[in-house]
Each structure stands twice: as C-alpha cells, then as structure tokens.
Amino acid sequence: MLSAAQDFRQKRPDRCVLARLKGRKSIDVKRGIQHTLSMGLMWIRVVFAASAVYDLVLGVAFLFAAPALFDHFETMAPNHFGYVQFPAILLILFAVMFARVAMDPVRHREFMLYGAGLKAAYAGTVLFYHQASGVPGMWLPFAYADLVFLVLFLIAWFKMREAAEG
Q: Fewer CB within 10 Å: N-end or C-end of the chain?
C-alpha cells in the first residue's frame, strides 16, 4: 500500500518536484523546473485540445446535420438516424473528456487510455472493413485522423507514466 506522499507523487509529479525545491534559496531554480515541466506537457495539451475540438465538431455535425452530410458525400444513410446520433453524442462526451485531459494531463492520465481505445476502435473497424469489403469514402479521412491521434495518445500516456514513476 502506498503512503499518502507516494500516492501524491504518482498523481502529481509536477507538484512534487516543486515541493522538493521549496527549501532551496533560488527562486529561479523553481521557475526553471516549473517551466520545463509545463513545456514538456505543452504538446500533450495541444494534442488533446485538438482532439477535443475535432471530436466536438464531428459530434455536433453528425448530431444535427447527418442527413445533409450523407447527401453531400453521396453516401447511403442508415435506415434510422438514431444509429448516427448515438455515436455523435458519444463523440461529444469524449470531446469533453479530451478537454479535461488537455487542461491537466498529469491528473487525467488514465483518461488517455480510454481515448486511445476510442481511436483504436474506430480506426480499426473502418480500416478493417475498408480492406475486407470496402466502406464509403467519407469514413476514411476520419479513420486516418483517429489513427494519428491513437499513436499520439499512446506516446502521451507513456510519457506521463515515465513522469509519474520518475
């Protein structure tokens, strides 16, 4: 079982480094460490913020304008738009989660794996069926984008794990 201090270090390594420096006289050292930590997290914040915007836009578009999107891409619509609207709502919920990760990647590191799962599920399903039997072209750009996000999410998760252990 972890002590309270060990548990805190695992959840908030950025604050632990700063806490260790409290006894030092140089305020510049503290600022330097804080700046280094925030710059190391910046790309992760940007990736998850971009994914939040991307999934929010897609979710809102398919929730409110699915018929127009299917017409625009000349793709056959499902027999009921509930089949499109439910995943659209899920995308919006994931967008909120990605925004939370972007705000505090250290605290919400565990959400990164759920996001990677979403991206792997969508990209894997679309790309499998694209190879096996073909899918309408409108779905492929989203699958490739999710594949890129999947790789970035996993890299971010591993980086955050290293920070928590180190």
A: N
